[in-house]
Amino acid sequence: MIKIDQPLLNSVSQLARESPRGRKNYNFHKTYDDTLQRLLNAIEPYSYIQPHKHEDPDKREVFTVLQGRLLVVEFDTAGNITDHTIIAPLEGSFGAEIPERIFHSIFALEPGTMVYEIKDGPYSPIDDKNFASWAPKEGDPATKEYIQGILNRLGIPLP
Questions:
Q1: 130-131: strand order across its sheet
Q2: Which residues face 43 on adjacent strands?
Q3: Which three-class secondary structure string do you get for 108-122?
Q4: Which domains does the chain have, with CATH numbers?
Q5: What is the pLDDT along the chain (159 residues), one digit of tens a residue?
Q6: E strand intervals along the chain
């Protein structure tokens, strides 16, 4: 049995806070070949995941928030926001599923945000994500401004 408890969440969250990327994954799947990828994704505010879609091969992705608050955003092919939701278990919202071939990204809205993520496998870094050309790449100095622009458009403050 795999147990997901507060000491595990605290440990992974601490690693995310110490990471230059502001996030840390903790995989439950045994190999990248597993057809069901399951992981904890600890994310801190302003950690940047470039908008992307899962296509060729097509994959669905599910986000369930265990603690904190997470903004999930979908985009059209030009980078316009088409849908969004805030997942916050203390506010009665628990998860979201992104269909294959839809551009999306996630943003932590408070420190210590912890996501249980499920995605179709297998995982291959070569073709797992098709990144949006209209958004800055991870590591680009413009990422913080890009995140703030999304939050401003949606009227969402960050602490």
A1: 81-87, 70-75, 103-108, 52-53, 130-131
A2: 23, 113
A3: ECCCCEEEEEEEECC
A4: 6-154 (2.60.120.10)
A5: 999 999 999 999 999 999 999 999 999 999 989 999 999 999 999 999 999 999 989 999 999 999 999 999 999 999 999 999 999 999 999 999 999 999 999 999 999 999 999 999 998 877 789 999 999 999 999 999 999 999 999 999 876
A6: 23-27, 36-43, 52-53, 61-67, 70-75, 81-87, 95-98, 103-108, 113-120, 130-131
